[in-house]
Amino acid sequence: MAIIYDLCIVYYNSRGDSVMGFNERITEDIVRKHFEKDIQGSKVRYLIEEQKSKKEKIDKYLKNASKKGAKRGYPDFIISNDYDPDFIIVIECKADITKHQSQTLDRYSEYAVDGALLYASYLSKEFDVLAIGVSGEDEQELKVSHYLYLKGKDQPIPFAGGKLLSVDNYYDAYIKSDAKLKQDLDELLDYSKELNVQLHTMKIPEKDRALLLSGILIALEDKSFRDGYIRYEPQDLTQALVDAVFRELRKSNINPTKLDNLKVQFDFIRTHTTLSTKEDELKNLITNINDKIKNFIKTHKYYDVLGQLYIEFLRYANSDKGLGIVLTPRHITELFTDLACVNKDSVVYDNCAGTGGFLVSALKKMIEDARHDNAKERNIKENQIVGVEYQAHIFALACSNMYIHQDGKSNIYNGDCFDSEIIKEVKEKFRPNIGFLNPPYQVDKKRDKEELDFVLNNLETLQQGGTCVAIVPMQCALAQKGKKYELKQLLLQKHTLEAVLSMPDELFYDSNVGVVTCIMIFTAHKPHPENKETYFGYYKDDGFVIVKNKGRIDEYNKWESIKSEWVRSCINRKEITGFSVNKVIGPEDEWCAELHMETDYSKLNNTYFERTILNYVSFLFQNKLIDQASKEPFNKIQIPLDKNNWIYFGLKELFEISGTKTTPLDELKKIGPGKYPYITTQSTNNGACGFYDMYTEKGNVLTIDSAVSGYCSYQPLNFSASDHVEKLKPNFEMNPYIALFLVTVINLEQYRYNYGIKCSQTRLRKARIKLPSKGAEPDYDFMEMYIKSLPYSSSILMSQPTAC
Predict the structure, then answer these.
(1) pLDDT per residue over 346-391, tens digit each?
(2) CATH number assigned to the domain covering 329-567
(3) Is the overall model pTM greater than 0.70, yes or no?
(4) Mind listing the pLDDT tens digit for each residue in 539-551?
(5) Of 3.30.365.10, 3.40.1190.10, 3.10.129.10, 3.90.220.20, which CATH number belongs to 606-798?
(6) Which of 327, 466, 538, 672 would be a feasible disulfide site paired with 433, CB 3.0-4.6 Å?
């Protein structure tokens, strides 16, 4: 039974209580009027359909999408457009805001968001779908949620805030979203592999592939070439392409000398045999680049496509040195702009410009900050981006890159950044206040300039108080003698070292370069104060992982949140245990977080010690040094790991630190198998790589790998060793239980060491570890009893040291 009072309907339930009714038609009417009014002012032709679709593809995927399990289902609204038919919007409405979204998102017929996501999941097999759930009957209190379901993906992504926007705004947000960029980039990189194979088949030299690509992209800006290239014969087409490139470059006000230099670089296109003689080879290449790369550039403005593709070409080249450059990954070039606080008034200078990756990222940041001020944008493009590149073919790429991204005058110099005339012109004409660089890494120590020479050169060109951000090999930061040390002295005499950030070990994986790097940040022309604290950050985990056939990528979308924390910590100089530290330094010090930070002992728990014991017992059992392994502890008394009374002890106080005699493996093989382990730098099997009938070292000591990661292990037996194995001989009475306790604590320090920072005897003598104490001495009794209380510790008794 229902009684109508004006516009309100009151229902009575079985108990006779009245409940307010909800009218979903009201919600639908609000949504309908919003979008009908909205699309009238749009330049794009949108189609709004209700409850069904006339489009065959949409209907095909909705036929099994019923919310209640019936064969066919339809959302309340479907919005599509002719401009981008791969993108559609589906909207599901509920009048009752309590029926907006369930916690599980799978109550499709009851909740607005759940229903929209159901339809989107079916449609995402063919389309990128924006799913919108709308609830409420009052336009002012409407509840709106958005999820983006990209084609082929299993999960939707929260999107676009909590109110209804215009269709144009939705499309703009979708096309510029990180998720869409990642999807399009995956497709671009897939194509880059095909493109590289195609260019190889066409016998285009590696160093010319990116140049050919950039030339085609520039030529496609020329309307007459774009409209007519399909009609040319091969030889005429190559000439027409080169002519189009230079018509476009001339429009950009590039000076005649620079234009002549570019012409030399692009001229190979005109004379290359395959390009100029093979029917349709170049035409098909142009068509594919127009479809797959040109459209990407239009969609994702200020993305360094040429740099990204150049990195892809590097990955498949025989040698990166053959191509002559190592490019900085895009996420790091963007990190630079945040660390330097780049804004619309910045003037950015890169004296080692490469393909222009830093300049493109800076340009993007500056244009965003200009907020559609056309005059300011024009000035940014024409006067606030400056670079120098020495290599002619890379210079051509940089000019092409800036042309593609700015449509303005390109201030890229082809020359030596140490040329006094270039330095003078950049300083006086542009007055840069931000400097970025990734200098050429020194290969020939006698002939090549040091990386820090380029940093000094960049700083020299900046205005007083300007910021220089450079990424350099870690060896530049560690140097304590020689030319690098002298350059560290000079840097601090003239400029202020604000921060040094240790970068991920495999940062340049895609360029086939294994160098460990750090970022240095300087304030220009202000000598480093004597008591100034420099910020050191352990920025080793950027969230990127290596994926087969994709390289090193942000597979799990961690980078944005990590970057925010990195930038916030650096700008605010936040000290975080195990992550960052502020420290007064001089040129004689090693400039890296690893060697200055406090270790985070709060994470040390039973699990760490149990893992050490299990690894050790596994080594004993695997090598038949014990007959059986038991999970039982030595005793069943539980001992808490209370770290409140722990204090620091220097390793040199506890041990005599020395090297081991290096024994070649070939020599041991001649001697033959035996009972003495051969200890190497490996981090498995307790460091042992075989057993032989010879030893050079006494057992009951700790060994540490000084080549790679600083891995520590306990050696109960006499042994021989490979090179880079250091020895810690105890100054106290050590047994296996105490040894395994110490091994666990020392291995907590492994983060300090890598290919760039060796765990040398010198560093070991400076190292400190925290240990349980009894007064001012280590509490060895506690260490022994604690290890005995843990699983597998009963098996340690079966193998006592035989070497003392």
Answers:
(1) 999 999 998 899 999 999 999 999 998 999 999 999 899 999 999 8
(2) 3.40.50.150
(3) yes
(4) 999 999 999 888 8
(5) 3.90.220.20
(6) 466
